[in-house]
Design a protein that fits this description.
Blueprint (H helix, E strand, L loop, with lengths): L2 H9 L4 H11 L6 H10 L3 H11 L6 H34 L4 E3 L2 H9 L10 E5 L4 H10 L3 E2 L7 H7 L2 E6 L4 E6 L1 E2 L8 E2 H5 L3 E5 L2 E5 L2 H13 L1
Parallel strand pairs: 2-5
Antiparallel strand pairs: 1-2, 3-4, 4-5, 6-7, 8-9
Helix pairs in contact: 1-2, 1-3, 2-4, 4-5
């Protein structure tokens, strides 16, 4: 593989010492820094690349490239924190209506796996609910200023039978949210019903608040299904 690919793989290693050892060998061999930065953005690991680059204290990284990564990381940290606050607010609204829900991927997973919500780039928010709560959850989101953008006009029973999620957007918050009752395409053999996953859900602390989240085992399965489709 190319030095640029080796750097990105090293950044994804959970073992910091191993990651830094690999980076010590691969960073000096990088020839396409612009391509490396674009690849890190494409794979959503620009924050990890910057973090590992700083930790490595490598002199092989051009100053302008390190500054560009710092700016990207700072912008993503701010965006992730805004999304995290909005996520907590939406979960609280659902809880008040007696709707159990948990976040899929997004900031909660970033903090659980990386210890920092800013180290993972999230395009939107994903919240999982039981099928029986879909109507009530949709009403909660509409009351919060969200507009339904998929499955509009389809009866709930038909929607539950034919789809796995429904999407909403809030133009004022610049936020898109997917409401799931299955994780993965409905027609896929590996599609996972949220009602089943709820049985293994556990409480976790996220930004100082208690939230419901997937067990590590279920998260692993969910991410395999997500990556496959």
């Amino acid at each position: 593989i190319s030095p640029e690919q080796a750097v990105l793989l090293a950044c994804a290693l959970a073992d910091q010492r191993q990651a830094l050892a690999v980076l010590g060998q691969t960073l000096p061999a990088v020839g396409d820094w612009e391509g490396l930065r674009k690849a890190a953005l494409h794979h959503g690991v620009a924050g990890l690349l910057y973090k590992r680059a700083v930790e490595s204290a490598s002199t092989a990284i051009p100053a302008e490239q390190l500054e560009a990564l710092r700016a990207l990381t700072t912008a993503n940290e701010r965006r992730s924190l805004r999304m995290s606050v909005q996520l907590l607010g939406l979960l609280e609204l659902l809880y008040r209506e007696g709707i159990e829900a948990f976040s899929v991927k997004g900031p909660v997973m970033a903090e659980a796996l990386y210890g920092d919500v800013g180290l993972r780039h999230s395009v939107d928010l994903d919240i999982a609910i039981r099928p029986r709560d879909l109507t009530a959850a949709c009403n909660v989101l509409r009351a919060a200023g969200f507009q339904q953008i998929t499955g509009v006009g389809i009866e709930i029973d038909r929607l539950l039978a034919s789809e796995c999620e429904v999407a909403f957007k809030n133009p004022e918050r610049e936020l898109v949210l997917d409401l799931h009752w299955r994780l993965g395409p409905r027609f896929a053999h590996a599609s996972l019903p949220v009602a089943d996953l709820m049985a293994g859900a556990r409480k976790a602390t996220f930004l100082g608040r208690d939230v419901l989240t997937l067990s590590r085992e279920d998260l692993f399965a969910v991410m395999c299904v997500h990556g496959a489709h």
